[in-house]
Amino acid sequence: MARKTKEDALITRQQLLDAAIEQFSLRGVSCTTLTDIADAAGVTRGAVYWHFNNKVELFNEMWREQIPLRDIIRDRLNINESDNPLMYLREMFVVGLQHIAQSVKLRALMQILYHKCEFTKEMMLESEIRQRICFGYEMPRRVLTQCVHNSSLPADTNIELALTTFHCFFSGVLKNWLLFPEHFNLYQQAPELVDNIMATLPHHPATLPMPMDNVAAYHYQAR
Fold first, then answer.
1. How far apart are alpha carbons 111 and 23 in whole angstroms?
2. What sections of the sequence does the record tag as coiled-coil (predicted)?
3. Is the confidence at residue 207, as pLDDT, over 70?
4. Less crowded by CB within 10 Å, the N or C end of the chain?
């Protein structure tokens, strides 16, 4: 039998990571065994141990390999941050929600994060996972600070409170959508949902919703 090449090993490793995402999202992390993952990937249990020492290591590597959402959608935005930072933030939120709605893989990852995982001390911290795959606090904080500096937002805007509000809003939207996807169309309603959260910022003309005729500019095909 021919020996496996390095390329073959990398392919198997990726198959295991993809199978882990699928199985964790269906069964839950605690109820998924390495045998379940091996069967879903079409390999032996021994092949799993060739790449990962245990399920926790596989779980952590699964998250480490994910590209942050902000990086995935960056090239799909129509507005430059420097031209209109507030509308740039709005568009990033809209396109981000729409990407989650269309991406089977990202939807499964969100399902694991929000509903199918009980964290233990050996696992990557939930806060680190959120920072890795979502927008985190750094980017919105930078953009809101720019908005204060260019007077798009009042000088006394409480940026940290706004960030907390954004975080609670998006977590709530995603948790409810994942539980009851039939209750609303996340892709179609993303602009309206984001406009509602942007409306919590201090009143300024720049925070008013974009005309619905322009919503089509946000539609794109997910990779």
1. 11
2. none
3. no
4. N
d(CA 193, CA 191): 6
Instruction: Write out the two tokens for 21.
Output: 């995402």
Query: What does the longest C-alpha to C-alpha distance in the chain come to?
Result: 70
End-to-end CA distance of the chain: 37
Cα 74 from Cα 110, distance rounded (Å):
20
Amino acid code (one letter) for 100: I
Q: Which two tokens stand for residue 113?
A: 């994060």
Whether residue 222 is predicted with pLDDT greater than 50 in this model: the reply is no
DSSP per-residue codes, 48-67: HHHH-SSHHHHHHHHHHTPP
Residues 6+ apart with CB under 8 A from 158: none
Ranges of beta strands (E only) in 60-219 are: none
What average pLDDT does the segment 105-125 reach? 94
Lowest model confidence (mean pLDDT) among 12-26, 65-79, 108-122, 193-207 = 193-207
The amino acid that residue 142 corresponds to is R
User: What kind and span of H or E run contains 79?
Assistant: none
pTM of the predicted model as reported, rounded to 2 decimal places: 0.83
Q: Are 29 and 118 in contact (CB under 8 A)?
A: yes
What pLDDT score was predicted for residue 50?
94
| Whole-number Å distance between alpha carbons of 31 and 36 | 10
Let me know the angle formed at the C-alpha of 11 by 56 and 52, rounded to the nearest 5 degrees: 20
